[in-house]
Amino acid sequence: MAMLKKIGRLFIIKTRLEAWLVIYAIALGAVERGRHYLDTYPGFGGWLLAVACTGVVFLAGGKLLDSVRAPEPALAVAGAYRVPVRRRSVTGRNRPTRLPNRRGSMSRTSHRRD
Fold it and tell me: Most exposed among 5, 19, 63, 84, judged by the fewest C-beta atoms under 10 Å?
């Protein structure tokens, strides 16, 4: 059982370099499959399948690169600088605030000139 675990660890992608190598291998296979589709299905259908094969490389490559941890910057590890936290206002998002209640001598109708 221990030997199977050691062999299983060989198939785990740990670094970005390994991810780029796997993406390259996937791309080679996709291009070869696309050429096969162009030979088998001449015309628009073959081109459509070939483009679909190569488009999958972008999706798989993005997932592979996202799944591998990027090295943290040295500044973040040292903790020498901390970004200040921006606080929200009391009212929340972009809600308008209430206008003060204008009654009596403060009302707009009493300031009219006739």
Answer: 84
